[in-house]
């Protein structure tokens, strides 16, 4: 499930790309934006599917080890706590998840060597050793271990990050959001659930779906009006001297202030200052904050800052 900050970031990237390619049709740009956001859910399922593939790899390795000419007692009676993990078994048996993987061609089985590398990264971790050597064997411990793989193993794996970025360049930015979505999905697992555990929806509500679409469309629709408001506040600065990312973030913020009555002013400003830390220069936060503060005053004086409901908070 993606956050609104994630959606704002994707809209920013889409508008930036659109301005760099002015010949591209608006509807084409919007379809690309839709696909980028949908891909985040696909990435979260890649993480989940990797769990079952690591178990499959470990199972195969144990069979190979047993075939050694002179197997030791440890070879013949290995620790199978990882491959017996109840939560991962639920994931593997989940019909809905399997169908999603089939529809989106999510398949790790042809990446045997890479899965092996990721498995050994996890197997060499402290939390893996603690789990496999613990005498406690229960569903809650299994679930805690799987969550540790996501939050500690996958989150810190430079190899996995690199591999997925190579598959889709947008996944460099989406990595943590998709991983968080996968984490929240596993958190909802409970013992004795059916084999049809639904995926976490991409959006928290239909409002989030309309939010990012309206933000993209209306920022572009009122582009000239918002640019004029910015120019009026630049004083001795020329608009050409303002870096492009700052201008886009300010326009998006004005759009929220102007077109989204249920979003509080403070939330809007704080969100775009956070995005500025990621996508603009070191001094951008101060500049953007100063421009927006003055524009808010103008909107109030003009009587067009009409907030209602949660927007009044």
Short summary:
The protein has 313 residues and is an all-alpha fold.
Overall shape: it is elongated
The secondary-structure element order is HHHHHHHHHHHHHHH
| Tally of individual helices | 15
Distance between the termini: 25 Å
**Approximate helicity band:** over 70%
The chain-level structural class is: mainly alpha
Count of individual beta strands? 0
Largest pleated sheet: none
Averaging pLDDT over every residue, what do you get?
A: 90
The parts where pLDDT drops under 50 for at least 5 residues are none
User: Radius of gyration from the CA trace?
Assistant: 24 Å
Number of domains: 2
Residue share in β-strands: under 5%
Features:
70% helix; 2 domains; 15 helices; mainly alpha; N-utilizing Substance Protein B Homolog, Chain A; 313 residues
3D structure, described in words:
This protein is mainly alpha-helical. The chain has two domains: 184 residues, no CATH class; 91 residues, NusB-like (N-utilizing Substance Protein B Homolog, Chain A, Orthogonal Bundle). Helix content is 70%, strand content 0%. It has 15 helices and no strands. Helix 1 crosses helix 13. The two termini are 25 Å apart. The mean pLDDT is 90.
Write the layout of secondary structure elements.
Elements: H1 4-20, H2 26-66, H3 73-76, H4 86-93, H5 95-103, H6 112-123, H7 126-133, H8 139-156, H9 158-167, H10 171-187, H11 206-221, H12 223-233, H13 244-259, H14 265-279, H15 284-301
Helix pairs in contact: 1-2, 1-11, 1-13, 2-4, 2-6, 2-10, 8-10, 11-13, 12-13, 13-14, 13-15, 14-15
């Amino acid at each position: 499930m993606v956050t609104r900050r994630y959606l704002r970031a994707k809209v920013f990237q889409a508008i930036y790309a659109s301005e760099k390619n002015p010949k591209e049709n608006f509807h084409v740009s919007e379809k690309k934006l839709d696909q980028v956001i949908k891909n985040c859910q696909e990435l979260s399922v890649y993480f989940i599917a990797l769990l079952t593939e690591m178990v499959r790899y470990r199972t195969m390795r144990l069979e190979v080890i047993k075939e050694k000419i002179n197997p030791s007692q440890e070879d013949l009676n290995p620790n199978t706590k990882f491959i017996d993990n109840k939560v991962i078994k639920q994931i593997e048996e989940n019909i809905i998840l399997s169908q999603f993987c089939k529809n989106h061609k999510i398949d790790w089985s042809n990446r045997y060597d890479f899965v092996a590398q990721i498995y050994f990264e996890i197997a060499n971790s402290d939390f893996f050793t603690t789990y496999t050597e613990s005498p406690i064997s229960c569903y809650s411990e299994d679930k805690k271990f799987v969550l540790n793989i996501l939050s500690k193993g996958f989150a810190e794996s430079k190899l996995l990050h690199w591999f997925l970025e190579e598959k889709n360049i947008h996944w460099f930015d989406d990595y943590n959001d998709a991983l968080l979505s996968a984490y929240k999905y596993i958190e909802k697992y409970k013992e004795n659930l059916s084999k049809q555990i639904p995926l976490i929806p991409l959006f928290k509500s239909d409002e989030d779906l309309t939010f990012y679409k309206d933000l993209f469309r209306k920022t572009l629709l009122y582009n000239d009006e918002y640019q004029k408001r910015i120019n009026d506040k630049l004083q001795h600065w020329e608009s050409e001297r303002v870096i492009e990312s700052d201008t886009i973030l300010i326009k998006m913020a004005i759009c929220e202030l102007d077109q989204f009555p249920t979003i509080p002013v403070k939330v809007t400003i704080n969100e775009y200052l956070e995005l500025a830390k990621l996508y603009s220069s070191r001094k951008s936060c101060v500049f953007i904050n100063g421009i927006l503060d003055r524009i808010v005053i103008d909107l109030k004086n003009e009587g067009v800052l009409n907030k209602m409901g949660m927007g009044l908070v």
